[in-house]
């Protein structure tokens, strides 16, 4: 998956189109978390420092109707970016037209411009999300080279990524995108072994593709979270009121058979009668969950088992929390796995997945991982071994 990066193109005097991920949380026009803007700075600074003109654009939220546009402008983002860069940033409140073209043509080397939310083009017939060819062509016409740095949308074919690239304009990965390709792509394609995958979260159905792809690639697959109980049911255990996907029990059985010793299930659970942090908890002795109870976290013996299974791992990919980590009574499994991973020597450790990344950050382990993916859906599809249209559209090395 060797893709060209921003380092492979000449940027001097060039109009550089940069698809960034500025999809930041906003509350009444105020940015509540600017992580994504900060994360885009290396690519933006690289363009500026190398004498390019940085033309930046992104989606922000979902926009379907004219009313949806309220509070979804990229203007506050452009202002915050200007503060972070310590230099003026031109904001154009349009996604096309004469004002945008004039502003672009007036740019000097090292200038930065942000134009309006690409999804504003969805109001009149889903042009951005539907990858309207004419729109992609128009945006491509504004620049000389295209840098795609928005990994979070790489699993979607939109006008602002695939549409622009498919006009044939030189298309390269920005630093953020490149990091995701390096870490997740290489972990799955050519991992240093032993390679241990940890899969949890709510549902088997969300993770089937990942489990199937990793069965042939990982040395071990540790299962936790809500999906445990569908596997338990497949093995004939009592599961009480635990989360279960009845229509996936047969599939779970198949996966258990296919994976053999590779697939490792928890050996105990932290249970409760209610989905609440106030209800009493009970730790099972073995897999079976008693009647009236639901399994909400892996138990202490499972943490020990998983810690032992992780020992010596050189590559770890983790997707999906081990329990309902949002409640402190059921966060110990996820914390335990975070600790086990943090204690590994000389291992590449990767988290892909929105809630797993949030869990690791919330529980204070953010700096203990080699890489925390910025794209939930996109990283999941990469782990499934799927071809991401946004990645495929980047020029090969
Ligand atoms: P990710 O976003 O990392 O891919 P998921 O979205 O698949 O993860 O799953 C995350 C959710 O799974 C969390 O909100 C967590 O509370 C829930 N979860 C974990 N374990 C259980 C369980 N035993 N029962 C019910 N929900 C669970
Ligand atoms: Mg999730």
Automatic annotation (TrEMBL):
<feature type="binding site">
    <location>
        <position position="156"/>
    </location>
    <ligand>
        <name>(2R)-3-phosphoglycerate</name>
    </ligand>
</feature>
<feature type="binding site">
    <location>
        <position position="207"/>
    </location>
    <ligand>
        <name>ATP</name>
    </ligand>
</feature>
<dbReference type="InterPro" id="IPR001576">
    <property type="entry name" value="Phosphoglycerate_kinase"/>
</dbReference>
<dbReference type="GO" id="GO:0006094">
    <property type="term" value="P:gluconeogenesis"/>
</dbReference>
<protein>
    <recommendedName>
        <fullName>Phosphoglycerate kinase</fullName>
        <ecNumber>2.7.2.3</ecNumber>
    </recommendedName>
</protein>
<feature type="binding site">
    <location>
        <position position="326"/>
    </location>
    <ligand>
        <name>ATP</name>
    </ligand>
</feature>
<feature type="binding site">
    <location>
        <begin position="59"/>
        <end position="62"/>
    </location>
    <ligand>
        <name>substrate</name>
    </ligand>
</feature>
<feature type="binding site">
    <location>
        <position position="119"/>
    </location>
    <ligand>
        <name>(2R)-3-phosphoglycerate</name>
    </ligand>
</feature>
<dbReference type="GO" id="GO:0005524">
    <property type="term" value="F:ATP binding"/>
</dbReference>
<dbReference type="GO" id="GO:0004618">
    <property type="term" value="F:phosphoglycerate kinase activity"/>
</dbReference>
<feature type="binding site">
    <location>
        <begin position="21"/>
        <end position="23"/>
    </location>
    <ligand>
        <name>substrate</name>
    </ligand>
</feature>
<comment type="similarity">
    <text>Belongs to the phosphoglycerate kinase family.</text>
</comment>
<dbReference type="GO" id="GO:0009986">
    <property type="term" value="C:cell surface"/>
</dbReference>
<dbReference type="InterPro" id="IPR015824">
    <property type="entry name" value="Phosphoglycerate_kinase_N"/>
</dbReference>
<dbReference type="GO" id="GO:0005829">
    <property type="term" value="C:cytosol"/>
</dbReference>
<comment type="subunit">
    <text>Monomer.</text>
</comment>
<dbReference type="InterPro" id="IPR036043">
    <property type="entry name" value="Phosphoglycerate_kinase_sf"/>
</dbReference>
<feature type="binding site">
    <location>
        <position position="36"/>
    </location>
    <ligand>
        <name>substrate</name>
    </ligand>
</feature>
<keyword id="KW-0547">Nucleotide-binding</keyword>
<feature type="binding site">
    <location>
        <begin position="353"/>
        <end position="356"/>
    </location>
    <ligand>
        <name>ATP</name>
    </ligand>
</feature>
<feature type="binding site">
    <location>
        <position position="295"/>
    </location>
    <ligand>
        <name>ATP</name>
    </ligand>
</feature>
<dbReference type="InterPro" id="IPR015911">
    <property type="entry name" value="Phosphoglycerate_kinase_CS"/>
</dbReference>
<dbReference type="Pfam" id="PF00162">
    <property type="entry name" value="PGK"/>
</dbReference>
<dbReference type="GO" id="GO:0006096">
    <property type="term" value="P:glycolytic process"/>
</dbReference>
<keyword id="KW-0418">Kinase</keyword>
<dbReference type="GO" id="GO:0043531">
    <property type="term" value="F:ADP binding"/>
</dbReference>
<keyword id="KW-0808">Transferase</keyword>
<feature type="binding site">
    <location>
        <position position="36"/>
    </location>
    <ligand>
        <name>(2R)-3-phosphoglycerate</name>
    </ligand>
</feature>
<keyword id="KW-0324">Glycolysis</keyword>
<comment type="pathway">
    <text>Carbohydrate degradation; glycolysis; pyruvate from D-glyceraldehyde 3-phosphate: step 2/5.</text>
</comment>
<feature type="binding site">
    <location>
        <position position="119"/>
    </location>
    <ligand>
        <name>substrate</name>
    </ligand>
</feature>
<keyword id="KW-0963">Cytoplasm</keyword>
<keyword id="KW-0067">ATP-binding</keyword>
<feature type="binding site">
    <location>
        <position position="156"/>
    </location>
    <ligand>
        <name>substrate</name>
    </ligand>
</feature>
């Amino acid at each position: 998956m060797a893709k060209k990066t921003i380092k492979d193109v000449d940027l001097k005097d060039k109009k550089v189109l940069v698809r960034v991920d500025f999809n930041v949380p906003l509350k009444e026009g105020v940015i509540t978390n600017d992580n994504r803007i900060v994360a885009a700075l290396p690519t933006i600074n690289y363009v500026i420092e190398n004498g390019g003109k940085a033309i930046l654009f992104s989606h922000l939220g979902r926009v379907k109707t004219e009313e949806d546009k309220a509070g979804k402008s990229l203007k506050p983002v452009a202002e915050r970016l200007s503060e972070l860069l310590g230099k003026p940033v031109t904001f154009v409140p349009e996604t096309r037209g004469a004002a945008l073209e004039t502003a672009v043509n007036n740019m000097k080397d090292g200038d930065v411009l942000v134009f309006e939310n690409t999804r504003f083009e969805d109001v009149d017939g889903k042009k951005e999300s539907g990858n309207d060819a004419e729109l992609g062509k128009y945006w491509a016409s504004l620049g000389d080279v295209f840098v795609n740095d928005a990994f979070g949308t790489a699993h979607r074919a939109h006008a602002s990524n695939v549409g622009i690239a498919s006009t044939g304009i030189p298309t390269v990965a920005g630093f953020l995108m490149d990091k995701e390709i390096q870490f997740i792509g290489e972990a799955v394609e050519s991992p240093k072994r032993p390679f241990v995958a940890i899969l949890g979260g709510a549902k088997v159905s969300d993770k089937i593709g990942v489990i199937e792809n990793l069965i042939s690639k990982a040395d071990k697959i540790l299962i936790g979270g809500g999906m445990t109980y569908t596997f338990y049911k497949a093995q004939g255990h009592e599961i009480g009121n635990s989360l279960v996907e009845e229509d996936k029990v047969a599939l779970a059985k198949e996966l258990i058979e296919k994976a053999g010793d590779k697939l490792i299930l928890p050996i105990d659970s932290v249970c409760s009668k209610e989905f609440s942090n106030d209800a009493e908890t009970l730790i099972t002795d073995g897999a079976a969950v008693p009647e009236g109870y639901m399994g909400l976290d892996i138990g202490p013996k499972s943490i020990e088992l998983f810690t032992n299974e992780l020992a010596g791992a050189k590559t770890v990919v983790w997707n999906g929390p081990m329990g309902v980590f949002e409640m402190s009574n059921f966060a110990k499994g996820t914390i335990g796995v975070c600790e086990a991973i943090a204690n590994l020597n000389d291992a590449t450790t990767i988290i892909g997945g929105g809630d797993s990344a949030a869990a690791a950050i919330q529980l204070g382990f953010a700096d203990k991982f080699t890489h925390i993916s910025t794209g939930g859906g996109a990283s999941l599809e990469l782990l499934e071994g799927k071809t991401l249209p946004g990645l495929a559209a980047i020029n090969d090395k």
